[in-house]
TrEMBL record:
This is Bacteriohemerythrin. It comes from the Bacteria. The keyword Nucleotidyltransferase does not apply. Belongs to the hemerythrin family. Residues 11-122 form the Hemerythrin-like domain. Keywords: Iron, Metal-binding.
């Protein structure tokens, strides 16, 4: 289970709220996996991720453009890559059916996203905004 903590905060309320929603869904999925029902929950989680990424990435990308975030193009590529991975995994599950392997892949994808993207990439957006406001 992943607990929201300050290290996950970007410092932008909208983005932090959306990240907290992602953590809740990840925790729901992880709990289902520990109860041996991850295969039953995988399509629901993938469906959530597809709609979540449309809304969240749109919000985050709009913010980056609004504040003229210099790393926007690279950040957008990272978002697009994540969307492609989610879509690829969903296609695989729809074609072959849910499996233990697909639940493991989804679990890894989500945990990796939280650990690497939010704490190592998204956090820079908040820092940039904070520094920009301080310079004004």
């Amino acid at each position: 289970m992943i607990i929201w903590r300050e290290a996950l905060s970007v410092g932008v309320d909208l983005i932090d709220t959306e990240h907290q929603e992602l953590i809740r869904k990840l925790n729901d999925f992880m709990e289902a996996c520990t109860k041996q029902s991850g295969k039953d929950k995988i399509l629901e989680t993938l469906s959530f991720l597809k709609s979540y990424t449309v809304e969240h990435f749109s919000d985050e990308e709009s913010l980056m453009q609004e504040v003229e975030y210099p790393d926007y193009p690279v950040h957008k590529q990272i978002h697009d890559g994540f969307v492609n991975k989610v879509e690829e995994l969903e296609r695989s599950v729809l074609e072959k059916g849910p499996s233990v392997l697909s639940t493991i892949k989804l679990n890894r994808l989500l945990v990796d996203w939280l650990i690497n993207h939010i704490t190592k990439t998204d956090v820079h957006i908040g820092e940039y905004i904070k520094n920009r406001e301080a310079a004004s």
